[in-house]
Design a protein that fits this description.
The chain folds into three domains: 131 residues, no CATH class; 91 residues, Response regulator (Rossmann fold), CATH 3.40.50; 176 residues, no CATH class. The chain contains 16 helices and ten strands.
Length: 449
């Protein structure tokens, strides 16, 4: 597989997405009605779904795989396209008044389609990663400009062979100074690279414009590399008309797309849990009420996103008036915890009422655990970076909760903060699903503390 086959990859991904969509549609129809032969209404629905997917997918370009490859970003983009497609299909169904379409079949179709594509993308990215490390599917590049910046760039490419870049030539600033602009442009055209990386400290504006026009004419990607070195900081390009500006942050900003995806997932997931788990909720309520005196539910003020207070709900696991002496954290063999409460805390079942907090919008399914103001002030004294966690919605579960569990003192709280800060750097639907799966494992194994 050589470079020239890369142009066929988007078309291959587009067609395979379309095939997987239809496979999901017919599979869900078989699961629901035990036949692959669709009814007249189902045929109309399948045709509508296909046409809408072709249009929405073409507009979003979700089938493009860009370098450097990021599976998480690609799946997130696909998921956003899927949501737009679902809204488009529902809108058409509503306005055309197409009746007799099974809701269960629709939701099953989209669920299967999403799972199929996640598997397909995972296999595709693994395959591309493998063959590029073996030296195939590479792009030829030329680097021009400052030698120090160029060396850093080449070192990055060497550390990541999955990028699939081969250095054809390097033209230093000294060589560029000895060449006329026309001579430099001609030299680049003769080398016929796929991409040109311009490493600049100070770039001639007219020359840059000529190189960009050359790239448009000869289908060569022109990329500009600054001399800025980022370690744990994150950069976002902001265009002020014709002035590109890099905005730097110590952690990545959560974009509108991620916020929409997280909120949509929160509402759907928490609704499903509360409806399907209603018998479990009722059983926990009865057992909690019968095993100790006091109400079945417990509420406590916590601090949420942007330091806004809210009330968190739990099944009561401690005796009534457990904090008459003031705020206290639970500890191992805590005498305030009831016997039934210990079982719930081990399996995290006491946290289930917080799905109501998620539906209300106070919390997310996944996010840093909310704390009380009393402890937040102490945490900030030892770990000022905790302030970053207050910018996002707190969660019912978190990576810190999974790996660390309930904290018994402020020092342990600060240790748990490190896990949640790592989550803040990698917020995505994929990481949320991974944390949920790990939480379920903790619940099943009864390893909560």
């Amino acid at each position: 597989m050589t470079t020239r086959y890369s142009k066929h990859l988007p078309g291959f991904v587009f067609l395979s997405d379309l095939l997987l969509l239809n496979f999901a549609l017919y599979s869900s129809h078989y699961i629901k009605f035990n036949t692959f032969t669709p009814s007249e209404t189902a045929i109309t629905f399948i045709l509508l779904v296909n046409i809408a997917w072709v249009v929405v997918s073409a507009l979003s370009r979700s089938f493009y795989v860009f370098r450097p490859m990021q599976l998480r970003d690609n799946i997130n983009k696909f998921l956003l396209t899927l949501i737009y497609h679902l809204l488009c299909v529902f809108g058409i169904i509503y306005f055309l008044k197409i009746a007799n379409i099974s809701r269960a079949e629709v939701m099953l179709s989209y669920t299967l389609f999403f799972l199929f594509v996640v598997f397909q993308r995972s296999v595709l990215f693994f395959f591309l990663d493998y063959i590029r490390k073996k030296g195939y599917n590479h792009r030829q590049i030329v680097i021009i400009g400052d030698q120090n910046i160029a060396e850093r760039l080449v070192k990055s490419f060497e550390q990541h062979p999955e990028y699939g870049y081969d250095l054809t030539d390097f033209i230093s600033e000294e060589q560029m100074a000895a060449m006329a602009d026309d001579e430099l442009v001609q030299a680049l055209i003769e080398r016929a690279p796929n991409e040109v990386f311009i490493c600049y400290k100070q770039m001639n504006y007219e020359l840059l414009n000529r190189l960009v026009k050359m790239g448009d004419t000869y289908l060569i990607k022109i990329k500009v590399v600054s001399d800025l070195i980022l370690h744990n900081n994150y950069a976002q390009l902001v265009n002020y008309h014709n002035v590109p500006v890099l905005q730097l942050n110590s952690s990545p900003e959560i974009g509108l797309k991620i916020r929409i995806l997280k909120r949509g997932f929160d509402v759907i997931f928490s609704s499903l849990v509360m409806v399907a788990g209603a018998p479990v909720f009722f059983m926990l309520l009865i057992v909690t009420k019968l095993t100790s005196k006091g109400p079945a539910f417990f509420r406590q003020e916590r601090i949420g996103q942007n330091e806004k207070p809210f009330y968190i709900y739990k099944f009561r696991s401690m005796r009534v008036n457990a904090e008459l002496a003031g705020p206290q954290l639970s500890k191992e063999n805590d005498p305030r915890i009831t016997k039934w409460g210990m079982v719930m805390r081990k399996t995290r079942l006491d946290e289930l009422p917080q799905f109501w907090n998620v539906l209300k919008g106070d919390m997310s399914v996944v996010g840093p655990r909310p704390e009380r103001q009393y402890y937040i002030e102490q945490i900030l004294e030892k770990s000022p970076s905790y302030k970053k966690l207050l910018r996002v919605k707190p969660g019912l579960t978190s990576i810190g909760q999974v790996h660390y569990g309930y904290a018994e003192n402020v020092d342990q709280m600060c240790d748990r903060v490190r896990y949640d800060l790592l989550y803040l750097q990698n917020i995505s639907l994929n990481s949320d699903l991974n944390i949920i799966m790990k939480t379920v494992k903790v619940m099943v194994q009864g390893k909560g503390k």
